[in-house]
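Thread title: Can someone regenerate the structure for this chain?

I was given the following input by a collaborator and told the matching C-alpha cells would be attached. They weren't. Posting the sequence so someone can regenerate them.
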Amino acid sequence: MSSVLPYKVSVLVFIENRAGEQLLMLRAKQPNLGVWTPIGGKLEMATGESPFECAVRETEEETGLRVSTEDMHLFAMVAEKAYHGDTHWLMFLFRCKTPIEQLPPDIKEGSFAFHSREAIKRLAIPETDQAALWPIFDQYRDSFVALRADCTVSPIKITIEQITKSAM
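Best answer:
Regenerated them for you:
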C-alpha cells in the first residue's frame, strides 16, 4: 500500500441487559452504515482523553447509562490495518459490568435493539465483527487479548499478539 492512511483511536462498549442480551446500534451513518454494532466512538485526543474515559463518555452520550471507569472491563485491544482501505484503527473493547435497564431512544448515529448472542450471528454486522470482535468477546470478555487484523486481505487475517487470562 503506497498511500499513507490516517490512524484513528476508538472504543467499543459491549453492554447487556439483565436478560444477558447485547445492546446493539443499527448504524445510521458511516462508519458501518446500515449494520449492527456495539456502541462506541473516537477518543477526544485533543483533550488527552483515555480509552476508559472515552468508554464512559460514549456510554452516557449514546445510551444515557451513567457509569464510571470502574464499571468498565477492558478485554481487548485490536489494531485494524486498512479498514475498508481508508483508515487504520486502534480499538479498545470494553465490557460494561453494569447492565442497562431499558432500550435507549434513537440518536442521530442510529437506533437500538437488544439481541441474544445467538441472534447476532444472523444479523448484518461488519466483517471484522464477525471474524474477530464477537469471537473475541465470547472467549476473552473476562480476561484480555491484544490482536491485529489485516483488512488488506480477504478473509481478514487475525493475529493474536498477547493473551492475559482472567484472575476471576
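Strands lie at 7-14, 22-27, 36-37, 39-42, 72-83, 87-96, 110-115, 144-150, 157-164.
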